[in-house]
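User:
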Amino acid sequence: MANNITDSQFDSEVLRSDMPVIVDFWAPWCGPCRIIAPRLDEIEKEYDGKVRVLKLNVDEERQWASKFGIMSIPTIMLFKDGQVVGQIIGAVPKEEIIRQFKL
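Assistant: Predicted structure:
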């Protein structure tokens, strides 16, 4: 299951990661966030060692969500070498995440 991170961990866990990182910007009250969570867990298992999947609760950790202009959740971003290289908004099928992020 994807690990939750805090704003203070974002730099070290995402921006300085030596492998690609998918960050799920979410909130507990968000229905579509609950729908997409198992799909991201499957991706994390299937691509173990190739991509990390982390979650950032936008209600509790607002700094990075604000910095990236997150207006709708779930927003899923793919980071490589500290840069955003992909973004998906909404609860899309797992195959769509894999296709858009070219996993």
